[in-house]
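// run 5 | inverse folding | seed 20
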């Protein structure tokens, strides 16, 4: 497979490092607006022929298409902030190649009642283009990271093998991962953190057959994480799984996503919002147009440089509630990564690696033909078995715990 990788940040670097160890990866074009970063990664990988470098503006769909054609790639891998999803998505379609990302197109809140009803939902712009991708005979695989991504694969696996009926799916993202000594240091892109944490969270209400929204950080819930971590408070956050799972798991009555942010982090995000530093619309400062959110991103620590300072474990999983053989059943399927061990074993920052191994697994499945198709789809559209088999093949930790039915209820 020949790949155009757009974005050489924390996750993009992890993707490239892993693909360098895979024989099916014939060529991977490293493309980013920061060409110095491209050259540094190319030098680390040590194979300029297999990993050619290019400078690219991810806002330019024509440039994406031109690069894809020039290097005769099979797939465009989007590893940049979700604000660039649509031009890269459009560029891949124009070039007539497959596409993969780890998020979806952005949402826009309901103009009149944002904390009750969704407006434009995550992924709507991409799913609206599904017929074009089908006519082109090309596949756009959305949300193929850790969460969304592996969490969706877990949901598909549960529905296929563990339950006769799936009633609820709840994604819980937490653990005890932190960066000591920093007043405000997100473990992944601050741009994305602000976007998903301050937008109105979405829930699936199967009784109404529709999505509903709530205020940010609503419905705090102490979730019992495994691996010795214990109960950690999680809150509602906007996330793609809530929009993807109900498209494929028909009959599911409720889907939620909650993230363990911590009260101090929530307070800082709320303060950014209160003074307008979460805004993306440019403001004029001494004759220069600048986005307030880009200013925040420029002054907080870059997660790609913080890998050796992170401590603790990151746990992401899918809590499924339903029945099997006429009896109630609840399970939590999850992946855990330890910050120090991941850095030692892979050379990558833990969140970058934990997110990045998933598109690499999906690429291998596409390269071997185990997964195939056309149109616009999420991970739930494909057989979870070969995916989980590759996790085992590469020794990537994933596990399941049985939960006592009814002992812990989602709020």
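// decoded
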């Amino acid at each position: 497979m020949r790949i155009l990788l757009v974005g050489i940040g924390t996750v993009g670097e992890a993707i490239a490092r892993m693909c360098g160890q895979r024989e099916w990866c014939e060529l991977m074009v490293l493309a980013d607006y920061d060409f110095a970063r491209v050259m540094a990664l190319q030098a680390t990988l040590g194979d300029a022929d297999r990993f050619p470098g290019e400078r690219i503006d991810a806002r330019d769909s024509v440039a994406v298409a031109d690069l894809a054609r020039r290097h005769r790639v099979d797939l465009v891998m989007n590893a940049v902030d979700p604000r660039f999803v649509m031009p890269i998505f459009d560029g891949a379609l124009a070039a007539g190649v497959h596409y993969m990302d780890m998020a979806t197109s952005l949402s826009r809140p309901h103009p009149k009642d944002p904390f009750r009803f969704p407006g434009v939902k995550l992924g709507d712009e991409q799913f609206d283009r599904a017929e074009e991708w089908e006519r082109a005979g090309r596949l756009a695989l959305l949300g193929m990271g850790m969460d969304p991504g592996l969490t969706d694969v877990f949901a598909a696996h549960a529905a296929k093998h563990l339950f006769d009926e799936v009633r609820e799916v709840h994604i819980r993202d937490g653990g005890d991962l932190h960066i000591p000594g920093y007043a405000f240091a997100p473990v992944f892109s601050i741009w994305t953190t602000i976007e998903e944490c301050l937008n109105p969270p979405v829930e699936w209400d199967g009784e109404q057959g529709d999505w509903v929204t709530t205020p940010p950080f609503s419905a705090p819930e102490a979730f019992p994480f495994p691996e010795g971590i214990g109960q950690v408070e999680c809150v509602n956050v906007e996330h793609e799984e809530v929009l993807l799972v109900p498209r494929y798991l028909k009959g599911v009555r409720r889907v939620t996503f909650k993230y363990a942010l911590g009260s101090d982090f929530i307070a800082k995000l709320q303060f950014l919002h209160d003074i307008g530093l979460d805004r993306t619309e440019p403001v004029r400062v001494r004759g220069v147009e600048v986005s307030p959110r880009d200013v925040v991103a420029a002054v907080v620590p870059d997660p790609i440089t913080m890998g050796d300072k992170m401590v603790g474990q990151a746990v992401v999983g899918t809590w499924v509630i339903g029945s099997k053989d006429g009896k109630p059943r609840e399970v939590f399927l999850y992946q855990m990564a330890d910050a120090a061990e991941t850095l030692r074993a892979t050379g990558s920052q833990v969140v970058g690696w934990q997110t990045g191994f998933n598109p690499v697994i999906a690429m291998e499945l596409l390269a071997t033909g185990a997964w195939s198709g056309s149109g616009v789809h999420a991970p739930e559209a494909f057989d979870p078995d070969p995916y989980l088999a590759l996790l085992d093949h590469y020794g990537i930790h994933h596990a399941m715990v049985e939960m006592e039915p009814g002992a812990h209820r989602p709020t």
